[in-house]
Design a protein that fits this description.
Pfam families: OB_ChsH2_C (PF01796), zf-ChsH2 (PF12172). The chain is mainly β. The chain is built from one helix and eight strands. The chain is globular. Bound molecules: zinc ion.
């Protein structure tokens, strides 16, 4: 599956999170780029508490830090059972109607 990451059209640097100008060369020629969301799972953490009543029904939630092959690190949700270090891929998933998120899963 592919995910969309902002990429500078001048120098090719991927920017995550998206910026108004490139973090490397300050160009404003930026566009979303579809990439294979593959990388290395660096860290996992589990969220047990939330102040948002909508989230309480879904706890605990596992979060992952993933170093993508394109050179950026992202924080996303994680499938249960993952352990570090591991090769993972990110897949889009829907956490609530209309809200799409990335989820790390076994590569
Ligand atoms: Zn740039």
């Amino acid at each position: 599956m592919t995910i969309s990451i902002q990429r500078c059209q001048s120098c090719g640097t991927f920017n995550y999170p998206a910026h108004a100008v490139c973090g490397n060369c300050l160009s404003d020629a930026l566009a979303d780029c579809a990439i294979e969301g593959r990388g290395v799972l660096l860290a996992l953490s589990t969220v047990h508490h939330s102040l948002d009543p909508e989230w309480r029904a879904h706890l605990p939630v596992q979060l992952a830090t993933v170093d993508l092959d394109c050179g950026v690190q992202v924080i996303c949700f994680a499938e249960p059972g993952l352990q570090t270090p591991a090769r993972v891929c990110l897949a889009p998933s829907q956490d609530r109607p209309g809200v799409w998120i990335a989820r790390a899963q076994d590569a």
